[in-house]
Structure to design on (199 residues):
């Protein structure tokens, strides 16, 4: 257990509050919770990658960062038009 | 070439953890979604510290460059998605995005109205 893994666990534990935000309130608040969740997940994935020493896994947060952009915009568009 | 510096890494990683937690708590504390959107920038700022910490741990490797790409992407994407979200919230509430005569100046809704 090194400092990177400790930081990763500390960052990932905030996902509980993000899940609470995603599951409660009106659709706008849930969308903000979803966007925050993607940021936290990307950060914690980088921390776990360096912490475990499995450096090829850095491609996963990179891919998620690209995909979360499209995903966020799709949800925003859907919220604006239909919800 | 790895400028390994454990104390520097510890400080930078604590900045990452603090920024993530402050962002999440601030987002939860805000009742209005438009106010909560502001706290999305805090983890993006933490990504800067994460990039520097990765450089201290691994040096100028592929991991560092990819982490730098993630950091730049988070900063760029965050601003675009935040703007699009705020625009969608306003359109959803008022029915249009651009300012018109008769629009309420105070966009933030009353807290009591939100809680009902």
């Amino acid at each position: 257990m090194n400092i990177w893994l400790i930081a990763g666990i500390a960052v990932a534990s905030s996902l509980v509050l993000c899940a609470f935000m995603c599951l409660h309130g009106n659709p706008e608040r849930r969308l903000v919770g979803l966007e925050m969740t993607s940021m936290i997940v990307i950060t914690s994935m980088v921390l776990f990658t360096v912490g475990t020493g499995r450096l090829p896994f850095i491609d996963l947060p990179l891919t998620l960062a690209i995909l979360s952009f499209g995903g966020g915009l799709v949800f925003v568009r859907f919220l604006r038009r239909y919800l | 070439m790895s400028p390994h510096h454990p104390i520097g890494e510890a400080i930078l990683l604590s900045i990452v953890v603090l920024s993530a937690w402050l962002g999440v708590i601030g987002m939860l504390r805000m009742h209005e979604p438009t106010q909560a959107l502001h706290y999305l920038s805090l983890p993006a700022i933490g990504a800067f510290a994460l990039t520097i910490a990765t450089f201290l741990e691994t040096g100028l490797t592929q991991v560092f460059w990819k982490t730098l790409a993630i950091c730049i992407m988070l900063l760029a994407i965050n601003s675009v998605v935040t703007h699009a979200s705020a625009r969608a919230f306003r359109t959803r509430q008022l029915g249009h995005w651009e300012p018109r005569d008769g629009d309420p100046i105070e966009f933030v809704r009353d807290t009591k109205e939100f809680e009902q």
Observations:
- The interface with chain B takes residues 3-4, 7, 10-11, 14, 17-18, 20-21, 26, 28-29, 31-33, 35-36, 39-40, 42-43, 46-47, 49-50, 55, 58-59, 61-62, 65-66, 68-69, 72-73, 76-77, 79-80, 83 of chain A (CB under 8 Å).
- Chain A has four helices and no strands.
